[in-house]
């Protein structure tokens, strides 16, 4: 009999969350461990194994598990390796998928977190039934997962879909952690929004609720709260962020002509504050053939479970 | 027995070229008719049929033909229609693939010319054996065909891969025929290069060989000839064109992580004059994971036959 469950593991820089998921996307069991606790990756895997086996036993043992999917920074689907991830305690190339497979005795695959989110959305969420869409995750950074012909795009080397590092400002763009300047991520991530706030508050003289907060500690959430109260500078920050995002989206559409762009993450929760300028500026920059035709959707996955669900969805495709 | 030949038809705004092609990409017979002669599309098809049947008989009759592939402006692979092509005499939606199929009694498919070029390059040319590459055609316009996982990307609606209409200049960009501003095509097509020449000659005072040509009639070929002779303004035009193209290529790489970008068309023949700045600026704007890894290749197809070969390649995949 086909095993009825999969395991999803979402490895972040701080926490590793995991869950056991059924075919309808219900998370039956949950757990988490600290990612940074062990500098020896084998000890990390040991702890993950113990924590997971406990909940695996609760659902009927490892025979019930079809496979393990993992979303991880710098995860490469083709090799199953995590390669040179700057925010993880283990350096170099770690053959994570193989290590999981050996430890648990079931198939395992990994990819990066934004790709996992795209697969999750296609399997359980807003992109169910879609063969062509682009997932954009707006968090600390800007990630993306691209689906074409029903398949995630990994490219020649497994690293395709780095749309957060396309250039949105060509001259005097902001310096990005990746070494480039002007990357979309430096403007439209949560940190990018906070950066825009600091810049605008420094060059502008008009009053703003944001001036009650120390400049260095302003977050995108503060900007949202101020915008909801009608603060002019905060509203302008959303307009600007949405403009850049909308312009970028129009270029993405010219590439793969998706049915929809699905947005996930903190910023997406700002609703129309961000979506209206995104939509307006995207439409303005689309070729006539696409005007009014590309859907902009919010993720349909419960935020707390989305990353685990996305990772788990990878496991359904395993042989 | 499997039919050994396919027909490729390249429909341009002025001429329609066609040929009979074997599996190794050899063009056994060639022909052409005027595209604009008939305002009734049925008469155009009739003339095409007569012209083609003549050479089909020479290679052994229609039983030898596996299918017909056509590259045409605004050709939609999914529907087989030519839809609202501004430079063709027939307005609205023309079900061209079906009309060919009925007339000739063999399977037929069509796509736009840049997509056909990509399939041609993958079947007979510089991208043989590649599963992930991007074809860029630099002609009167800038076209593109994107191959991912060995398949051409058509997107949700069949119109994917309009990279010539991604935005390369965001503020005060040039007006494009598509209705947008700042499109890559307005700077890096042959006409874009001539436009740059006119702009530069007007704002600059220094001497140039290009000043011997009436401003309105300067072509990209003139710029090339002047650059080869060491003309400073002409060289600057190539630098500028290559810079924009290289920056755009870096963003394309971030999307689909191709093994190579294959360039075709008049400008590509300028060799290092254009390729050096393209390469330098692409490399400078790539994420570290891709630096030094993405090949820039010239088309390996004989230019006179390339469009027909590309169209013909489509027919090998027909069922």
Automatic annotation (TrEMBL), chains A, B:
The protein's name in its UniProt record: Glucokinase
GO-annotated molecular function: kinase activity
Tree of life domain: Bacteria
Pfam families linked to this entry: ROK
Keyword annotations of the record: Kinase, Transferase
Family: Belongs to the ROK (NagC/XylR) family.
Keyword Transferase among record annotations: yes
Keyword GTP-binding in annotation: no
